Every structure is written in structure tokens, then in C-alpha cells.
Amino acid sequence: MLELTGVAKSYGETLLFENIDARVAGGEYVAVMGESGSGKSTLLNLIAGLDRADCGRLVVDGIDPGGLDDDAVTHWRRRALGFVFQSFHVLPYLTVAQNIALPLRLNAWSEPAIRQRVAEMLEAVGLAGRHGHYARDLSGGETQRVAIARALAHRPRLLLADEPTGNLDPRTAASVLALLAAEIRRNGATGILVTHSPQAAKTADRVLTLTRDGLRPPHAD
Fold it and tell me: Side by side, which strands form the sheet with 14-24?
């Protein structure tokens, strides 16, 4: 479960947002939309403990990532978080399979379990024939699918996805969105999807719009 209460963030004199109040249950998948520059990616970074709010409280399954020291928040992210970054952050000098296996090895999965889960995720994102290829040799769409598979591989309790279908064709995008929704519900995870796409947002359980004054349903006063 994710709870945000009175969260605000500024950069210098520029206020991105304030009065962010929201609650997302385990197994629930929420899309966040908003204008460019409204702070959607920043909000994901706050939830992930990669940045700190100016004020307010943010709790994930009873833990406030912003209140942890560097070592503790690193271990928490390794165990509980899956993050599909807009810029992917796939490691170019590792193969597709090695990239997907990375969170599993960091969480001390056994080698047989790693091989099985990597094979499952490769099949799920349509990359079964690319497991031995280096990430640096992939297309943008293939790289994006590797990033999605890696984020889901260790069955995280919190999944954050920043424009996860931006480089995908419509058919692949629909398949990936269905996979994200299915994994979130199957694992009882909390899922947050940031997107500009109304079609992508429709796959979520509900949609919230981020503005300077809060996070609320579309067209809310």
C-alpha cells in the first residue's frame, strides 16, 4: 500500500506541486497523467526514495523511504521496488538475460530459479530469441522491453513505470500494459504508471491528474 499525505516539492523558487494526498492499495494499478513539466517523474522519484519531498509524508507498506539512510533505502529498493525508467537504465555491457537477472541475483535467488524466471520474462515481453544479445545492440523498443522485464522479474511490492510504452508500437504496447497490470494484481503489488497516453491510462484501475495544487481524478474541481 502507498500513502501520500501533504507531499510538496520545489526546485529553487519553482514549485512543482503541493498538497499531494493519495492512497493506492496493494494490487491496485493507478495511472498518473498531467502536463509536461508538472512533476510526474519527480513524483515517482520521491516515491522511490531517489529524491526527498520538501514536506509531507510518504509511506510504502509502512516504510517511509525518505526517512531511511542511504544503505537502508538501497536495500529497500533492491527488495521491494521495480522501476521502469523513462531512459531505461539498461546496462549496455550485459546481455539481455543478464540485465533481467540482475535484481534476482541482488536478492540472492538460486541459479535455477533465476534461469526459470528470466525465461518467463523473456517470453512475456517477446524477447525469447534475444537472451544472449548485448543490450547495446538492441533497438529502442527492445531495450524498453528489457527494462520492463527487469523491473518485474523479482516480483516487487511496488512497481513504478515512467512512460513505459513510449518507444513501442501499438500492438507491443498493449501487450506490455497487459503484462504490467497482470503482474501487479498477481503479486498484490502497488502500481503507478506515469503516461501521456490516454490509451495506456485506460488499462489502469483509475486515473489521477497531477497539477501544481494536488493529485486528483480527471476533471475534479
Answer: 14-24, 2-11, 55-60
pLDDT of residue 219: 67
Our count of domains for the chain comes to 1
Q: Check residue 155 and give its pLDDT.
A: 94
Q: Three cell numbers at 58? A: 510518504
DSSP tally for the chain: helices H, then strands E: 7, 9
Q: How far apart are CA 5 and CA 170, in angstroms?
A: 36
Q: Using CA atoms, how far apart are residues 99 and 92, in angstroms rounded to an integer?
A: 9
pLDDT of 221: 47
Per-residue pLDDT tens over the stretch 121-142:
999 999 998 889 999 999 888 9
* Burial of 43: CB neighbours in 10 Å, binned 0-12, 13-18, 19+: buried
Q: Give the CATH number for residue 145.
A: 3.40.50.300
How do 2-11 and 55-60 pair as beta strands? antiparallel
Instruction: Determine, yes or no, domain membership for 221.
Output: no
